[in-house]
Amino acid sequence: MNLSTRDIDRIIEMAWEDRTPFEAITFQFGLKEQEVIDVMRREMKPSSFRMWRERVQGRATKHKKLRTFEEGRFKCSRQRTITNNSITKR
User: Fold this and answer.
1) What is the distance, to the nearest Å, from the Cα of residue 88 to the centroid of all Cα atoms in its chain?
2) What is the pLDDT of residues 17-30, one digit of tens each?
3) Could you tell me where the beta strands, DSSP code E, fall in 1-85?
4) What is the helix (H) or strand (E) element at residue 86, kind and residue range?
5) Rounded CA gap, 5 and 7, in Å?
């Protein structure tokens, strides 16, 4: 599969995000979990890759089957007061 630099950057970003499951990467880019791991191994420094692997291994939020919630996302208690990426005056 030919991935552009932009696609690779987005895959790495999504893989680092705690609440983005591997299934979302599969849906968007057609890469299975093992292929994402291969991209991360190839594109990152060895120490960064090891840190990432320790972080995601067994993490429930990275695997849709292990998630405890069916739909929705984390919502900050102050989210309703945040507009245009800045917190409004209280």
Assistant:
1) 28
2) 888 888 889 999 99
3) 82-83
4) strand 86-87
5) 5
